[in-house]
Specification:
7 strands; globular; transferase; Aminopeptidase
Length: 138
């Protein structure tokens, strides 16, 4: 089930964030649990992944997307992304943007599967490397 995050999810989501992301954004997640950034949770008995979206209508910026490391590669990310894109489309958003590490082939392949395309190179975007801006119309 994909649902909005609740305050009681915060500890579990923070654990996912810490374990799954190289450069997490804990301050934004802290604000997002109560909104206005949207935090969607993939809940299968407990939160197993989340998407943190900063809305700037008609554009949504996907700031963080993470699945519990031990559960990756099982289709949970696909389920969460499908639900996220549907939710944004119904909400009247026209475009989704996100950044990824330029050298993270696994992440880029995942996003390519959802028809995200490269819009720009982002030199030194991360503390230890370059990024790319990926964009998808809804």
């Amino acid at each position: 089930m994909i649902r909005e995050a609740r305050p009681e999810d915060e500890a579990r989501i923070r654990a996912i964030q810490t374990n799954a992301l190289d450069e997490p954004w804990p301050e934004l997640l802290g604000v997002g649990i109560d909104g206005p950034p949207l935090v969607l949770v993939l809940d299968i008995g407990e939160p197993l992944g989340y998407a943190l979206v900063v809305p700037d209508h008609p554009v949504a910026y996907l700031a963080e997307f993470a699945i519990t490391p031990g559960k990756q590669g099982q289709g949970l990310g696909t389920t969460l992304m499908d639900g996220l894109l549907d939710r944004l489309r119904v909400g009247g958003f026209e475009t989704v943007r996100l950044t990824a590490r330029a050298d993270d082939e696994r992440a880029r392949s995942f996003y390519n599967g959802f028809e995200f395309s490269m819009a720009d190179d982002l030199p030194d975007h991360y503390d230890d490397g370059d990024g790319v801006l990926l964009v998808r119309d809804l």
